[in-house]
Amino acid sequence: MKRKHTMRVRAPELPQNQAWLNVKSPLSLQRLRGQVIILDFWTYCCINCLHVLPDLKCLERKYKDNLTVIGIHSAKFDNEKQVENIRQAILRYDIEHPVLVDSGFKVWQQYAVRAWPTLMIIDPEGYVVSHVSGEGHRDTIDQLVAQLIQKHQKKGTFAAQALDVTSEKQRQPLVNPLAFPGKVLATTSNLFIADSGHHRIVVSTLEGELQYVIGTGKPGLRDGSFSEAQFFSPQGMSFDTEEQLLYVADTDNHAIRRIDFQRQVVEVIAGTGDKSRNIQPYHGAGVATPLNSPWDIQQVGNSLFIAMAGSHQIWELQLETLAIATYAGRGAEACIDGALAESAFAQPSGITTDSKDLYIADSEVSSIRRISLENSQVTILCGSGELFGFGDVDGVGAEVRLQHCLGVESFQEQLWIADTYNHKIKRVDPHTGICQTVLGDAAGRDDKESTQFSEPSGLSGIGSYIFVADTNNHAIRRINVSTLEITTMYFPKLCAPDLCFPVEKDFHINKN
């Protein structure tokens, strides 16, 4: 926490002519005089920014009459500059405070911000009294807010105010059967869907016949039966066919869960529910080890490899002993090749294998990385390898430009990529690094019969098909890899939690 004790700086006024979300009309600092204000400079791709959100929610609830939080969304990626995409992020992450769209970095520059996330604390008289960058400062901010409230109540410069709020979830309720599905996993007979926005796992046949809904649909960390268990924004999955076990990266619970289909129970096998801040080499018992936003997983033999997005590392969980350890990555957010311990990743969010190598969707450097399981070396397969080296360019190796790719799948001797912020599905030759666009041309929303996607985040292949988690379209799409025909899957017996609409009895997969 960096405080300025020698002088206070008048907080620059917020613009009224830019887009605002979660409010009926733009807010001004002048009108909010008498409140403690926190400006949260964030961008929705950033895992550190996402980690700050629970802290802000806690403070908002604790000081509901005394504190106003305003998100200032200053986008890193081009895709994040679009107001509609920011609105979808607000819905996905259940953000309830007002958000100002600062895609031109005007407010960022006025407040001399240099990094995501940055929090500016403004006192009831309209002065910036402190600021902090990074995550993990909730206790310090809590103490400062309490001191400011007490001081200005005594001074007579404090005034409780009620905001005229109309949340985006009021404007656009999540009533779809699926909500922001993050990952999908196809096996010979089943389709497993991480229904991330509904905090549950959905299991169907490959044709969409519903088999199981696992989880209450309410966020939480609870083991137990399929109807009792709770998840919190689950993402990647891996299935052990022989043992009938599904492993789940329970991302916002910072845990790995195991779903036993024979006993029909869910249990934690790694993680404590607390977010770890450790990036040093580690080895210990899985259930005693805090994790940091595990985003995807891949089983290889008796090992479960984990794309640990929050610590920018790859971890390994031994399935026989349930011991867990860091496997690759020093914890710095970067793209560094070499030996496992010396390498670095940048928010790895997808992982797959061809049994010889691991392939990583390294989202913040918009690149595909390879880890040799034989010689334990990390290399870059395609993409710039730079934090700001993104775009939409097909080509070979370093020529390739992706934009915040979240999904990768090894299928039919090729790598299939969910190029998330380009709204495209691409294919990479793992031998040559040649990357080609397969499908997608622009963001498509609510037009589920087109070849457009909206922030696809996960994909999985079986037989002649690739299944895609079309995240912002709240849909699962099926691609015939021979004809490239796309169908949107329907699940006629699936409803949003506590909400159901009647459907026709002969509802089926619809083809475009």
TrEMBL record:
Annotated transmembrane regions: none
Domain spans labelled Thioredoxin: 5-150
Superkingdom of the source species: Bacteria
Protein name: Thioredoxin domain-containing protein
Organism, scientific name: Chroogloeocystis siderophila 5.2 s.c.1
